[in-house]
Amino acid sequence: MRTFLLLVRAGFRRHSTYRLALLAGTATNSVFGVIRASVLLGAIGSAGTHIAGYDGPRVLAFVWWGQALLGVVNLWGFQEVGQRVRTGDIAVDFLRPAGPQLVYLAEDIGRAGVNFLARGLPALLIGALLFDLAWPPGIGSWILGLLSVAVAVVVAFCGSFIVNLSAFWIVEIRGIRLLWMITTGFLCGLYVPVPWFPDWLRTFAEWTPFPSMLQHPLDILSGRVDGAAVWGTLATQLAWAVALVVMAQVVLQSGRRRLEVQGG
Amino acid sequence: MTRPDHDAPTSPTGQAGPIIEVTNLVRDYGGLGRKSRRVRAVDHISFGIQPGEAVGYIGANGAGKSTTIKLLMGILRPTAGQVRTCGLDPMRRRIDVARQVGVVFGQRSQLWWDLPLRESFTILAAIHRLDPAAARDRTARLVDELEMGGQLATPVRSLSLGQRMRAEIAAALLHSPRLLVLDEPTIGLDVLSKQRLREFLVEERRERGTTLLLTTHDMGDVERLCSRVLVVDHGRLAYDGTLPGLAATVGAERLLVIDLAEPTRPLQDVPGARLVAVESDGLRQRLAFDGARTTAAAVLTEVSRRATIRDLAVEEPDIEDVVRRIYASSAGQR
Ligand SMILES: Nc1ncnc2c1ncn2[C@@H]1O[C@H](COP(=O)(O)OP(=O)(O)OP(=O)(O)O)[C@@H](O)[C@H]1O
Ligand SMILES: [Mg+2]
């Protein structure tokens, strides 16, 4: 556990060195937040007072929490692990008395922490200053909502980790990564809330881990899901997290067995 | 140079027996269906290394050295044969092996690129579950001995090659491993850096008795650090023994450089010796002889019958030359 926490801290430090990128991220997030808020408010206005459980303040909460979590949850995925497999640097990871999945997960949690403080909170603040957004309905929603964010970080990490591990079998994984990015962006509910999807697509999305990466925490934090239903949402997320952690481990082990380290 | 102590009793953790044991090890690269493109990188290699030994693992580019090391660490799965590292199957017990072994791949880094060097040591200490106080002491010692105090706050990416290599070695030694495996640790280093690194390793081994397996193309490393050499050639073990023995095996000649009192005719007729060069009108002559067949003394006696010797030097066979001969002779067999 101490090991894990130290690795989280290292990830935090490592990512906090890119201050300018963080600042730029906050600025972009805010601009897009304003645009998205206007578009979705317009949609609600033309449909009446609410769509699928979203009224004005809730959709604003959806947008601004979404912007805040954009850098926290690794929706776009990473490429480092895939590159290490490709170059053979992954060999170094196997020289350590720790599982690479744990090491990289810890680092990603550190990265999430930096982004929450440096990009998430400012975005939320700006959203709150410019718009009248709904806040989590109670202390329970706050706590479980943030817990849900943490689980979302794990789910997104594991998904991208598995995508990266495909480099054990395929030399060029850019295509797969792009596909992952597009699918995630769409099905996690970033552009349009999942409950607004047509029935067939919503049903499909609900059978994938993607809503667990964003839609579910947003549901809890915006108060669209409240009371006992929160536990169900969290349970769904946890189930996906466990499934993906196990799957990543299986993929990693079979990748290791067929590993042909490239280069000296 | 220390003698190999083949009878070293027990290791620090109490496990007796060889620290590395490799039996008929084979490793092929290349897909299963593509027989034509299969490469046999390691070809039925067998050897054992006892705790406390220092072994140079040498061979030409592509001979299979790095592959062997990866097999020893459980990074690669053997195609056939057996590997035991610290008495364990590294493929199954990778983590237990990693706890007892320190490895440096000269061309790769195990440090955290973006972070100050100090952080890498902290993180590695955590990964190895070292007691924080003990880890601090150990880090301080290594930093001191490797003279890295000035670089602790520098991000790894800004270190010079020599600085980084010292840091890599400190990182590999942080958890006080029983076995240190270095794959080309001196690659790209200048003469002084090499020298300092070697001195450090000699000292470290003298203090802690760490077993060393060293891969290098620099024969100076081997001469200075290793009491035993393994030569691999095209994946096969071509030699296993001492360094002087290696020279004897290939019949490498020693060289006598003789300065004479006055210009002398070329000394072509010295029994057991072969004239290599005549310089300064015969004032200096170079004679090569096979150390297995005659002695320097016998050659000198013969020379002094013919001329007055003013000064002399004996040059040992150049190890690179010796290794080149091994490669050449096995290439000839192919
Ligand atoms: N990932 C790989 N895929 C295919 N062939 C490989 C791979 N890695 C190594 N080889 C081949 O295996 C052989 C041994 O390679 P290895 O890296 O073990 O050599 P080496 O002795 O370490 O050489 P060097 O001194 O150049 O580092 C070479 O013929 C090399 O081309
Ligand atoms: Mg090599």
From TrEMBL, chain A:
The chain crosses the membrane at residues 20-47, 59-78, 116-135, 141-171, 178-197, 228-252. Keywords: Membrane, Transmembrane, Transmembrane helix. The keyword Isomerase does not apply. It holds the Pfam family ABC2_membrane_6. This is ABC-2 family transporter protein. It comes from Intrasporangium calvum.
TrEMBL record, chain B:
PROSITE patterns: ABC_TRANSPORTER_1 (PS00211), ABC_TRANSPORTER_2 (PS50893). Residues 20-259 form the ABC transporter domain. It is found in: Cell membrane. Coiled coil: none annotated. InterPro entries: AAA+_ATPase (IPR003593), ABC_transporter-like_ATP-bd (IPR003439), ABC_transporter-like_CS (IPR017871), ABC_transporter_ATP-binding (IPR050763), P-loop_NTPase (IPR027417). Keywords: Antibiotic resistance, ATP-binding, Nucleotide-binding, Transport. It comes from the Bacteria. One of its GO terms (molecular function) is ATP binding. The keyword Nucleotide-binding applies. Gene3D superfamilies: P-loop containing nucleotide triphosphate hydrolases. PANTHER family: ABC TRANSPORTER ATP-BINDING PROTEIN, ABC-TRANSPORT PROTEIN, ATP-BINDING COMPONENT. This is ATP-binding cassette domain-containing protein.
